[in-house]
Design brief:
By secondary structure, the chain is of the alpha+beta class. It is built from 9 helices and 18 strands. It has 2 domains: 297 residues, Aminopeptidase (3-Layer(aba) Sandwich); 113 residues, Alpha-Beta Plaits. Its cofactor is Mn(2+).
Length: 453
């Protein structure tokens, strides 16, 4: 039998020690992960009743974009009670909270939008909105018809969970309560003024503390408690379209003495349908051109001198977005010219495409599956646009959808977001809170590797 040398014996023992340490580290990390998950589940369950109460309170007191003063106060007071550093008035009415863990580490941003819509809510819910507000000079009814009440409440609950665990967490959490995702009620597009996420960034949102990753959860029709997402382009770019057709006014009984902007506008509207069907490269990206408002004329026997149309352009690829905008302008101007009229066309960029970071999504997938108890799906393209896109341009972003359709209803048949009949199954909200908290803890504790590497 061959005897081993002293050096060989030392080498063998060192190798055994390394293996033992690796086993110990792995088991310790696994135990830490299990412990954090158990705590987050327990804390999520404990805060669920308050989460629903917050959501109902915010739902009953909705506020339009850049008017979210009551909601901001509610959020700021809650964060201060948790010991979170709070900054208010960011982007007009936004609130930012900074929670520092026990030691240095990564930074995670969590975003919730707070604003409601100029929609009249029907009676039925005991906490239905009866609120009114001024929207660009006009008094309107206000409703949380897109679920931002749920988003705000879920992030308030997430803050409570993570603040209670800060001694176990390294790094920093940035809670971003954003105003005016649906647009400002006091600033018009095209005036050169920003709102929402873009304004918050312009005012230095990420100047002193910049996230290594930023997350958001949005409620949508879908099986209650299901989390869905996709990589790459996730929400569409959104551009505002304004077209003014100028003719020559005259008597409705003598149209030969006029240049009729109403008939010309109808021809323009019809012609715009071919921009997508025949000009847009749909192999690269879906595209939508919608005219949502037409205004012109004062009486049945008067041909007016002008008709105004407004609408939206949506796409998921920047080259398609630019081409559609150019083709809309070319089509409208040339059709109007052929009728002896003139079309003035403005395409105003509103929101960029939201891009979900593929590496971040891949690393977060097992965490999300745990949070949703395996109830996950690949999200479909939906045509909506989001200013979370601006945050995701500054840091790797992941934008998730949370299904809130009751189990006895078909998600494909229920009222969609922005409908006065949009309904949120509140039993799903704890899943959204748990998901945000678990993703944050996993990222901060190193269970997810640095996505920038």
């Amino acid at each position: 039998m061959k005897k081993t040398s002293f050096a060989e014996d030392v080498c063998f023992k060192m190798q055994a020690l390394v293996v033992a340490l690796l086993i110990l580290v792995t088991s310790t990390a696994g135990a830490q992960e299990a412990s954090l998950e158990a705590q987050i589940r327990e804390r999520s369950a404990a805060v669920e009743k308050q989460l629903i109460a917050w959501r109902r309170d915010i739902h009953q007191h909705p506020e339009l974009g850049d008017q979210e003063r009551r909601t901001s106060r509610l959020v700021a007071e809650h964060l201060k009670r948790l010991g979170v550093d709070v900054q208010t008035g960011v982007g007009r009415t936004g609130v930012v909270g900074i929670l520092k863990g026990a030691k240095p580490g990564p930074v995670v941003g969590l975003r919730a939008d707070m604003d409601a819509l100029p929609v009249t809510e029907p009676e039925g819910l005991p906490f239905a909105s009866k609120a009114t507000a001024v929207y660009h000079g006009k008094e309107v009814s206000v409703m949380h018809a897109c679920g931002h009440d749920a988003h705000t409440a879920m992030l308030m609950a997430t803050a409570e969970i993570l603040a209670g665990m800060k001694e176990q967490l390294p790094g920093t959490v940035m809670f971003i309560f954003q105003p005016a995702e649906e647009g400002s009620s006091v600033v018009m597009p095209g005036e050169g003024k920003s709102w929402g996420a873009k304004l918050m960034l312009e005012e230095g949102l990420f100047k002193n503390v910049k996230p290594d990753a930023v997350f958001a959860v949005h409620v949508m029709p879908g099986p209650s408690g299901e989390i869905s997402w996709r990589t790459g382009a996730t929400t569409a770019s959104g551009d505002m379209l304004q077209i003014s057709v100028h003719g020559r006014q005259g008597h409705g009984g003598m149209p030969w003495n006029t240049i009729d902007p109403i008939v010309t506008s109808a021809q323009v509207l019809t012609g715009l349908q071919t921009v997508v069907s025949r000009r847009a490269n749909l192999a690269l990206s879906p595209a939508v051109v919608t005219i949502g408002a037409i205004k012109g004329g004062t009486g049945p026997n008067v041909i007016p001198d002008r008709v105004d149309m407004s609408g939206t352009i949506r796409a998921y690829d920047e080259s398609v977005r630019e081409q559609v905008g150019q083709d809309v302008k070319l089509s409208a101007e040339n059709i109007a010219e052929s009728a002896g009229a003139k079309a003035e066309v403005s395409v105003i960029p509103i929101y960029a495409t939201t891009i979900n970071d593929a590496a971040l999504a891949a690393k977060m997938e097992p965490i999300i599956r745990k949070a949703a108890d395996g109830k996950v799906a690949v999200a479909r393209l939906i045509g909506a646009s989001e200013d979370f896109s601006y945050l995701a341009q500054e840091a790797p972003g992941l934008y998730l959808f949370l299904g809130v359709t009751p189990e006895d209803q078909d998600p494909l048949k229920v009222a969609p977001n922005h409908s006065p009949h949009f309904f949120v199954d509140e039993r799903a909200l704890v899943v959204g809170t748990r998901t945000m908290a678990l993703m944050t803890a996993a990222f901060l504790t190193g269970q997810v590797m640095d996505v920038a590497k």
